[in-house]
Amino acid sequence: MSVAEEALEHLLQGNTVEARRLLATHADSTEEPCATTNAVLTTAVDDAGTMRIQEEKARHLNLLSQADGRERALLLYNLGCFALYQEDILTAKLRFGEAARLQPNHLPTLINLACAHELMADFDDAAAELERALMLDPASPLARLNRALLRNSMGETGEGIQALRILAAENEENPGIALHYCRALLSQPSAENGTEARELIERHPELMEHKELKECLAFACYRSGELEAAGQLFSELLAENESRLFPRMGLIKVLVAQDRFEEALPHLERYQEHAPSSEVDEVIAKVRGM
């Protein structure tokens, strides 16, 4: 099995965390250019990635002119993924729509078509495509995950979180599903949700091997009022990678909640260097004036 195929297997299980990790380890592979391209698609947009995707897009368009059937559907699917990376959502929707017409039983196409609809705020169309995907495979973790996340986007947060709760219970060691579930809980500000997210991760400490879930645990501790534990975790995350903004802001929140303003000031100034904003300027001015 190739790296790209293995990553797809993880993705179909809703394990986006492991799929990204696997692809990241092969981002510069000369033996598997497909894995390298997929690695680009799962990272932030940058100049090198933009150039590679543009080259792949041109190559695919050239092949598309002579392709038909399943090969054409696959090329269109890939072109849809390239369009999503380039934030050309309308083109992505058209590409995925044509791919789905040619290959209506291809689950990733239907799910990505739903994603394109959702990004255009066409929520009913997104839901319809996910229902098609679930008709193909009612147990599909990826389709169920996306349906739950769509409910959250539509404001049906109670139903969305409950669907994620069930999915996480069925896939306890799946870090991708755990991450989406914890983020959904923590998007609703309450100590109870913080406690639920914290207990989920603490039951499976191996989840903290992934920095995103360690960040969730830190924020969950903050939400549930465990400031010392939150501060320790945010500090550890910054020691691992001091350029990450989320743990720095998390540590700022903890220090401010503890009235440790002088200790918060250098973190505020560092945050402002990486992400300038008038709001942070105002907080810095207030702290300096104390």
Shape: globular
The multimeric state of the shown protein is: single chain
How many angstroms separate the termini? 61 Å
Helix run count: 17
Task: Write down the secondary-structure element order.
Answer: HHHHHHHHHHHHHHHHH
Derived structural class: mainly alpha
Largest sheet: none
How many strand segments? 0
What Rg, in angstroms, do the CA atoms define?
A: 21 Å
**Proportion in helices:** over 70%
Report the average pLDDT across residues.
90
Protein traits:
76% helix, 17 helices
Task: Explain what you see.
The chain is mostly helical and 290 residues long. It contains 17 helices and no strands. Helix 4 packs antiparallel against helix 5 and helix 11 (175-186) runs parallel beside helix 13 (211-223). The relative contact order is 0.06.
Kindly summarize this structure in a few lines.
By secondary structure, the protein is an all-alpha fold. Helices cover 76% and strands 0% of the residues. Helix 8 (123-136) packs antiparallel against helix 9 (141-153).
Describe the secondary-structure layout.
Blueprint: H1 3-12, H2 16-24, H3 33-41, H4 47-64, H5 69-85, H6 89-102, H7 107-119, H8 123-136, H9 141-153, H10 157-170, H11 175-186, H12 191-203, H13 211-223, H14 227-240, H15 245-257, H16 261-274, H17 278-288
Helix pairs in contact: 1-2, 4-5, 5-6, 6-7, 7-8, 7-9, 8-9, 9-10, 10-11, 11-12, 11-13, 12-13, 13-14, 13-15, 14-15, 15-16, 16-17
